[in-house]
Amino acid sequence: MPAPNEKRRKLRLSDEQTKNTALLYNFDNLNRLLYGDGRICIDRDSPATGENQYKYFGEASWAFNKVVMPKLGVRQRQSELPRRRRRNHDPLEDHVYEIFHKRMKKDERSRTLTDRGRMYFEMDNVKSQLELLLQHDWNKHLPQLTVIKDRSDVDELLAKRQATIRELERTLAKFANWESRTASLAAEIKSYEGHPAQGKNFQDDDADDDDESILDKPLEQLAKQRQQSRLAKHGRPFSILLGNGHKIRYNPYLTPTVAIESYLE
Q1: Rounded distance, CA 125 to CA 145, Å?
Q2: Which of 42, 48, 119, 141 would staple 132 via disulfide (CB 3.0–4.6 Å)?
């Protein structure tokens, strides 16, 4: 019999958590219906079943109060945008900030690479954890990833193993989606920087925008001139009849769409 002050030797296999539970997956407090695929039971024989049944608002037995809309006499007025001011000479040219801009861009690139490396390291850990759960000895590795109340309960181990696998796969899918979107965005930025003219929008291709003499022209005359130049450059909108009740609508500034003829003007 050990002495009162002597510490008892702990067994190797114990239900005590050797890791901080905040770092583990915890599926005990989740909604059983949403995450546990629980069944919804409806008791139609209960006397309280018919008391609070849901009814469509049009079939309600009570009358709704009519909302009185007072006439406020509000009139809508279309306001015109202010004209662009004439440019003044900038005493601080762009070349003054080129050195600072390059240094900040270099620091931002280094921080981005550091964050990307840390993220890839975490995703490698997630992949290794998923591989451990797919092995034959997954029951040894599951308590290191998920909170387990009773290690001798086979049903709990199987259920939490499937839940952990789904969570790991969802994390990897989100990372793959982020990686593809980041690659697409980087390719788009690189293409735009290599060909700045291709990145310009149709709405911003006015060649006379840098000319300050346009400020002396009326807005109606300037809008008419720009509309004529755009029509001469990109063409007019048109529709192609398909003969089956549909037509293709084309606009140089929009994506071509297929619509029903009767719904078009």
Answers
A1: 11
A2: 141
Q: Where are the domains of the chain?
A: 96-199, 235-265
Kindly report, residue by residue over 60-73, the tens digit of the pLDDT: 555 666 777 777 77
1-42 pLDDT, tens digit per residue, is 555 555 666 555 554 555 577 788 888 877 777 766 777 777
C-alpha dist (Å) from residue 188 to 137, 183, 195, 220: 46, 9, 10, 36
Instruction: Record the pTM.
Output: 0.49
Residue 22 CA to its chain's centroid (Å): 27
Beta bridge partners of 250: 238
Strand-pairing partners, residue 25, are: 146
Ranges of H-type helices in the chain: 32-35, 98-133, 138-141, 154-194, 219-234
Closest CA to 142 of 122, 165, 172: 165
- List own/partner pairs for 80-89 with CB under 8 A and 24 or more apart: 80/219, 83/215, 83/219, 84/215, 86/212, 86/215, 87/212
Beta bridge partners of 247: 241, 259
